[in-house]
Amino acid sequence: NAGVTQTPKFQVLKTGQSMTLQCAQDMNHNSMYWYRQDPGMGLRLIYYSASEGTTDKGEVPNGYNVSRLNKREFSLRLESAAPSQTSVYFCATRDSLEEQYFGPGTRLTVT
Amino acid sequence: AQSVTQLDSHVSVSEGTPVLLRCNYSSSYSPSLFWYVQHPNKGLQLLLKYTSAATLVKGINGFEAEFKKSETSFHLTKPSAHMSDAAEYFCVVSLDSWGKLQFGAGTQVVVTP
Q1: What parts of chain B have a pLDDT lower than 70?
Q2: Rounded to 5 degrees, what are φ and ψ at A98?
Q3: Residue A43 forms contact with B (CB below 8 Å)
């Protein structure tokens, strides 16, 4: 089992460019999450999806959109990247015992 | 509103000595609390969790944490540090039943030989 996978691992964008971060899980969990991690700030929730077909905003949703394509996949889209979106992005899923399982992360730099 | 404060941004210990990472939380009810560990350039891994059963919680790799409601604390300890414990540690509180989490700012642990 791969668990939670994320693509790409690294990405460099110019200001104004768009891109989609992909996340997939093979754990059959209903809930999925997108976080960003910045130095000294822990992880902050961008969006989450409690089940297939539903999404909701987290703490820092501005500048992002998400799609829960099916139970396995949850993508994060930056429509017009800004330098403030330079960060490490983590996808996670949650099991019935409240534990969250994290992917390896995507390191994004916006110049 | 729930929040979590990690009292130390960096902790340096010698191999074989005890580790103490301090965490205080604020909550209007008895929350679920977690400690996660992140090794360099890796994702996060759950060390342990408190969900209102026993107040002393044992986790993986010899770590444990004690929930103290009177002190609103959830400190993480390990009796003897290993070099492999060098990582960043996050204290986390659950915000609601949807799984939204509030992370502390993290404590970077350095283990010296």
Answers
A1: none
A2: 75, 0
A3: yes
